[in-house]
Amino acid sequence: MVDAALRSQVRQWIVEAPRITVLSGAGMSAESGVPTFRDALTGLWARFNPEELATETAFRAHPQRVWAWYAHRREALAQVQPNAGHCALAAFALRHPGRLTLITQNVDGLHQRAGLADTIALHGSLLDDHWLDLPRTCCHTEPIQSGEPPSCPVCGNQRRPSVVWFGESLPGPAFAAAEAAAQDCDLMLVVGTSGVVYPAAGLAFTAHQRGARVVIVNPEPSDLDAVADACLREPAAQCLPHLLENS
Ligand code: BV8
């Protein structure tokens, strides 16, 4: 049930906020048909935890299994489009240049496809890959040998998805920009995240501690509810257009 009065209050907070930071997670893309991170473990991968697949150790131990999981998720992305929530955020950013900073934990590129080119992508991109080990001359000169995973035909160096795996540090510049956006904002919208994964989830605490209002958009409770000034129990693609359009 939509809380229209709370939604209207949040709309007013948005109008009044000179600087808005958005922190999005997998729920942002749920209505585009992209399974949330936890849901992405179905079928062949149902028996694994994300932490058992999304790590360098898992990739080195089972390169074909891990590569196949990412290839499966990548193929699914080819069929999906940004949803009304992605588009509402991009349209708002266009109407208010420099006022909205978007930080995403998602690796699906949908915010960027909706028009938010300067999205801070904390966990990299499912659409790109790079060398697992430091590339040698042969990795640059020889054609990549196809396979699961593709590899260098001379030294055997493997390609890996350009996502941040568990146990890997986030890209320094991206996380520094995200921390600054959390520290400097007047309002943080936390959309579609369980708040389980760090250091990304910690950004909501940073915003709260710096005195920003924190608004959560999530049909379910999350680990970040404790720092929220308001929780809108609605799906992102339904809620964000109401919050952002005509403002
Ligand atoms: C780090 C890319 C420093 C990969 C991802 C041991 C060693 C090292 C670190 C750790 C450790 N133990 C713990 C840690 C920290 C670890 C961590 O947080 N673990 C968790 C599991 C406890 N973090 C790390 O490892 C990070 N690095 O700490 O580096 C370091 C380095 C070396 C040594 C020591 C320290 C790296 C974390 C990045 C992991 N990579 N993605 C891939 O995609 O395969 S994270 C991955 O999980 C996703 O990208 C996403 O960010 C995250 C899942 O979170 P959500 O986005 O919230 O998704 P989820 O499915 O959980 O929730 C969806 C939500 O949406 C739900 O609440 C649901 O209700 C809601 N929803 C559903 N529908 C809708 C909706 N909301 C709105 N509208 C809807 N329609």
User: What gross morphology would you assign?
Assistant: elongated
Q: Assess the beta-strand content as a share of residues.
A: 15-25%
CATH class of the largest domain: Alpha Beta
* Largest sheet report: 6 strands, parallel
> Which segments are poorly predicted (pLDDT under 50) over 5 or more consecutive residues?
none
CATH topology of the largest domain: Rossmann fold
> How confident overall, as mean pLDDT?
95
Find the CATH superfamily of the largest domain: TPP-binding domain
In DSSP terms (H or I, runs of 4 or more residues), the helix count works out at 10
List keywords for this structure.
SIR2/SIRT2 'Small Domain', 2 domains, elongated, two-stranded antiparallel ribbon, 247 residues, binds ligand BV8, six-stranded parallel beta sheet, Rossmann fold, alpha/beta, 36% helix
Describe the structure in your own words.
This protein is 36% helix and 15% strand. By secondary structure, it is α/β, with parallel strands linked by helices. It folds into 2 domains: 1-33 and 81-123 and 170-247, TPP-binding domain (Rossmann fold, 3-Layer(aba) Sandwich), CATH 3.40.50; 35-79 and 129-163, SIR2/SIRT2 'Small Domain'. Helix 6 (110-114) links the parallel strand 2 (100-104) and strand 3 (120-121). Helix 1 crosses helix 10 (236-244), helix 5 packs parallel to helix 10 and helix 8 packs parallel to helix 9 (202-209). The structure holds ligand BV8.
